[in-house]
């Protein structure tokens, strides 16, 4: 799990604990699995985004190299 999602999960968990302490675990019983699912999906999307960022950077580097090679061949 990414650091960002882990931090969010920790904050949400503390809030759930506070609600359980004040009211009872029934108030979060249905909500907790939904939040866990959202956090898991968020982590997955962040991971995919990081992969796309790396791929984009590699493509930018390739583009720059191709541009430089094409420029050298013209002279």
Our count of helices gives: 2
Task: Tell me the helix content.
Answer: over 70%
Radius of gyration: 23 Å
* Average residue pLDDT: 93
Q: Note the main sheet.
A: none
Low-confidence stretches: none
H/E order of the elements? HH
Give the termini distance in whole angstroms. Answer: 51 Å
Summarize the structure.
This protein is mostly helical and 75 residues long. The protein has 2 helices and no strands.
Detail the topology: elements first, then pairings:
Elements (H helix, E strand, L loop, with lengths): L2 H20 L8 H44 L1
Helix pairs in contact: 1-2
InterPro entries: JIP3/JIP4, RH1
Keywords: Kinase, Transferase
Protein name: C-Jun-amino-terminal kinase-interacting protein 3
What does this structure look like?
With 75 residues, the chain is mainly alpha-helical. The chain has one domain (3-74). Helix content is 85%, strand content 0%. It has two helices and no strands. The chain has helices spanning 3-22, 31-74. α1 packs antiparallel against α2. It is rod-shaped. GO terms for molecular function: JUN kinase binding; kinase activity; kinesin binding; MAP-kinase scaffold activity; signaling receptor complex adaptor activity. InterPro entries: JIP3/JIP4 (IPR039911), RH1 (IPR034743). Pfam families: RH1.
């Amino acid at each position: 799990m990414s650091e960002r999602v882990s931090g969010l999960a920790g904050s949400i968990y503390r809030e759930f604990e506070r609600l359980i302490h004040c009211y009872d675990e029934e108030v979060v019983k249905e909500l907790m699995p939904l939040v866990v699912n959202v956090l898991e999906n968020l982590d997955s999307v962040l991971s995919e985004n990081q992969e796309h960022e790396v791929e984009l950077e590699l493509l930018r580097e390739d583009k720059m190299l191709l541009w430089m090679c094409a420029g050298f061949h013209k002279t």
